[in-house]
Amino acid sequence: MHFDYLIIGGGIVGLAITRELRTRFPGSGIALLEKEPDVAYHGSGRNSGVLHAGFYYSADTLKAKLTREGNRQMREYCYANNLKINECRKVVVAKDENELPALFELEKRGRVNGVEVQIIDEKELFEIDPNVKTFKNALFSPNTATVDPPEISYAIKNELKSKGVEMFFGEGYLSRVEGNTIKTTKGNMVSATKIINAAGLYADKVARDFGFSEKYTIIPFKGIYLKYHGNEIPVKTNVYPVPNLKNPWLGVHFTVTVDGTVKIGPTSTPAFWRENYQGFDHFKPGEMMSILSWEALLFLTNSFGFRNIAFEEIRKYDRSFFAGLAAELVKKIDVKGFTEWGRPGIRAQLLNRQTRELIMDFVVEGDNESIHVLNAVSPAFTCCFPFAEYVVNNYVIQK
Predict the structure, then answer these.
(1) What's the rounded Cα separation, in Å, for the pair 134 and 328?
(2) Are 382 and 51 in contact (CB under 8 A)?
(3) What are the helix (H) ranges across the chain?
């Protein structure tokens, strides 16, 4: 089988790129290859569902350039297709004087990025959500919302199928044969003029078959949310702490989902293999040895504070400790109301093997024949539509 474009990976990034290609090149032959029975089986179907506004990211990053527009486009897509969306908004709160400079830095970044943000005082915060507490000031984001990621992914899949995109489910990438011909897990040979690799947790491995991702590897981090089922709903808006701007995580926070459920999280625990969701599901010994060797090195050298992160994250499996971190953001809460762990997700976090640093921004590599999305971590779901435009403009058309 031969196609003009072959996309590997049925997550939100692969779907969005496929959609952009179909829009730009309506007469071309396009196929999507996904090893699972359907789309959004991994990160895209297991994330928080938050539509980020775009104030966390410094102006020189792709995340800064794409998040505001991604938020707008995804919101429009939901309303146009009658998909669920909760315009719950968001506040970032400070616990003491020391966190105020970082809070104002977030406001500065937001304004530079063209994002609607506002520094508010405690009285204004009370009007937004009376149970949330802060020290002197908080940051208010009116354009943060929550959506249903699987629902959106299925909607895009159905749109693509109706427009003639061929989809191969239960059939993954196995190896590169030669040139732009690959072998699938079912033994089929598929070739394409351009191959776009959006394989998420395995994007780096696919890329290396084509001569890319030479200095990168993916280190998986497991994220789990804890759902609240107490008598009184503790918050009505998303509530986040001031983050450590040197790390890609945003700290334990409250999320209000599309159906009104309140959850806290996530954890960011180092995983032992790429699809290490629970128990020995998807266990691969060789994969575990490779990842553990990297994690051991990062632990020993404490690169980017990895040792501290590991100890802190392991403690979050103690439900009372985990709930206690969230309780610091509000005036009162029944910590015993956190009774249900959510569905685990894995963050496909790219590591620079040479510098032993986590890559904070999106990373794409490619040439005339193949394109590889190596780092598409949060807020990739929010950014997926303009990110797809970026990939097509810079790697499909120009190369």
Answers:
(1) 9
(2) yes
(3) 12-24, 43-46, 62-80, 100-112, 122-128, 149-162, 203-209, 285-301, 306-315, 319-327, 380-391
DSSP annotation of 246 reads T
- For the chain, first and last CA: distance in Å? 24
Phi/psi at 145 (5° precision): -145, 175
pTM of the shown model: 0.96
| C-beta of residue 378 within 8 angstroms of C-beta of residue 66 | no
Per-residue pLDDT tens digits for 244-293: 887 778 899 999 999 999 999 999 999 999 999 999 989 999 999 999 99
Helices 285-301 + 306-315 axis angle, to 10: 110
Cα(316)–Cα(118) distance, rounded to whole angstroms? Answer: 31
DSSP character for 330? B
For residues 85 and 75, is the Cβ–Cβ distance under 8 A? yes
Token representation of residue 177: 């044969």
Contact present, 26 and 1 (Cβ < 8 Å): no
DSSP letter (8 states) at residue 57: S
Q: Decide if 349 contacts 218 (C-beta within 8 A).
A: yes
- Phi/psi for 243 (5° steps) reads -85, 165
